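Because discrete structure vocabularies remain unfamiliar, we reproduce here a specimen of the format, pairing a chain with its fold in token form:
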Amino acid sequence: MEMKTDSNQPLKWLITGGCGFIGTSLIRNLAIENKHFIRVLDNLTVGTEADLAKVCQFSHIGNCKDLSSDKITVPGCELVVGDIRDATVCRHCSRGMDVIVHLAANTGVGPSVENPELDMKINVGGTFNMLESARSNHVKRFIFASSGAPAGECEPPIHEELPPHPVSPYGASKLAGEGYCSAYYRTFGVETIALRFGNVYGPGSGHKSSVVAKFIKKAMAGEPLEIYGDGTQTRDFIFIEDLVKAIRLSQSTDGVGGEIFQIATNKETTVTEMTNLLIPALEKYGINNASLINGENRLGDVMRNYSDISKAKRMLGWISKTDLAQGLDTTVSYFIDQKDE
């Protein structure tokens, strides 16, 4: 397969959910090159304008109907405050774009169990709106943020050919998104790539409610760290910089339209093992006496989850490089710095 590196040509990126953890991390990476145009579509329910301002200077677009490819300045960044459930907003925002990175979602198992209808409307309806906007505006490449959740309860490692059996509404909605990506590639020629992210952690995750960010925030507040169940459940923890590299390669690699990739580390880590690495990192930065408690198992959670990343290595030339101890240390340092600021 012919592969190409990051294009020397400036690209026009639409990033949904761009004010969030992954979005701002990607934008920081793009902004360093000082050549791309970046449009962010975000409803600001999680990320904020202040979060975006930390990684780039941006203009605020009040009315998406005013968007025009003729007004795009390279390099540049603009924020459109809007919702992916609004098909008109999606269509206007997609005009003139080269690539869409669709990160906006109702994230996590817990919220999907609490409100499965909302999860469906955002994750299925919103993804459909973005794909239809890509098709109607002739956007060449569409990168979809998926998850290991569509695979459901299975014997890991998870790989792309496993029959999906989602356990949670979240897994079902992400599976539907993958299905629509496949259909829009095979029927309409939109070059979709679905990336099944592992458990993402790292600097910038202050709004995250996943286990690493939650435990750090709890420890800093002097609150106990609650492990659901006995802590033997396993996850595949991936550092944010490694994940951003996978997104960039998904944009720049030829011949991967219609594909799904597991983006993780191929390492199975129990929540207890992760916590045993996190506590020394906390102590290094003066956060001592973190206490652990065990709560009830959570509905919709799977017991074992880690990924076979050989397909991403073979087709994208991608591997994760950050080991968990190093990544946790960097993440705790970030949270400490944010508190000091």
